[in-house]
Design a protein that fits this description.
The chain is an alpha+beta fold. It has one domain: Alpha-Beta Complex (Glycinamide Ribonucleotide Synthetase, Chain A, domain 4). The protein has a three-stranded antiparallel beta sheet. Strands 3-4 form a two-stranded antiparallel ribbon. A hairpin with a 5-residue loop joins strand 3 and strand 4. Keywords: ATP-binding, Ligase, Nucleotide-binding, Purine biosynthesis. InterPro entries: PRibGlycinamide_synth, PRibGlycinamide_synth_C-dom, PRibGlycinamide_synth_C_sf, Rudment_hybrid_motif. GO terms for molecular function: ATP binding; phosphoribosylamine-glycine ligase activity.
Length: 97
């Protein structure tokens, strides 16, 4: 899932400090990919684009993978961060038919 800057896809502010990346990196069955990130002069990750990070959960089932993605994403924070809360719901509905 994409962790996006507040205001995206419209105008958004850059330079917001990103926290929780070390914690997220240590989680089992969770990956994070950088998109709109940069380093500030002190070496901290900051936002530099609308689609800041991508959070990926791994699991033996779709349900497990989605749960891991949300768990990992909840460890990460930056001002006005947002992401969709309905990831995988369409697939769940189609399975139930």
């Amino acid at each position: 899932m994409v962790l996006a800057s507040g205001g995206y896809p419209g105008s958004f502010e850059k330079g917001k400090k990103i926290t929780g990346l070390d914690e997220a990196a240590g989680m089992t069955d969770f990956l994070v990919f950088h998109g709109g990130t940069a380093l500030d002069p002190e070496g901290h990750f900051i936002t530099s684009g609308g689609r800041v990070l991508s959070a990926v959960g791994l699991g033996n089932s779709l349900e497990e993978a989605i749960a891991k993605a949300y768990e990992g994403a909840s460890a990460i924070s930056f001002e006005n961060m947002h992401y969709r809360k309905d990831i995988g719901q369409k697939a769940f509905r189609q399975r139930r038919k």
